[in-house]
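ok so i was messing around last nite and threw this chain in just to see what happens. nothing serious, just curious
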Amino acid sequence: EIHDCQARFRVADCGRRFGKTRLGVLECIEEGAAGGRGWWVAPWYKTALVGWEPMVRLCRAIPGVQVKQSEMRILFGNGGEIAVRSAELAGGLRGEGLDFVVLDECSRIIRDRWESELRPALSDKLGRALFISTPRGRNWFWELYQRGVNGEEGWASFQYPTSANPYIAASEIEAARRDLAELIFRQEYEAEFIDSSGGVFRQVQERATGIALAGPEPDRQYIAGVDVAA
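result:
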């Protein structure tokens, strides 16, 4: 269903082990095989390997394909190209026009990487994007998801729990339900967007952004605590 959707921007909110990585990898390879330029973008270098390794494994079986291991880039005989990139450093995703991009674990990627670097790279070719992730509260990935839910032109959104993967045993999912805290299970396995009202510290985002927009209230003292190792 996600693959067959013709929307330019697709947002797939899925539980862990649903199969979203495989979907993104296959679509990147499809883009390169058709002569296009596609990128797989992950929050950090180590998570980028999650996409790179299956790409290499599958592409080595395609005649005429060159794998540039040190550059994390794969070249197709027809001029197509796919590459894996990390979103860790600001400015690291600038400079190239793209036909297609996958944002893996999108909810963990810094919003500005999409808005300032990747979105403009799609403009000259009217490129497409696939956002895949488990949720992380109601952050900017949730906002992207709402664009499809609200029927915005060019956008489509999908939500699938881990149980939608027929290769995951139902008994394993039930075991995870028993082992994990309810909110963690609902987020990681049922792909629910858990807002801050369900946490220990409630309405943190609403309070912080409200103060930032309206300014601090007079005659009140504000105290913030930050765990920098979190």
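not much to say yet. The helical segments are 20-33, 45-59, 111-121, 140-149, 170-179, 182-188, 204-214.
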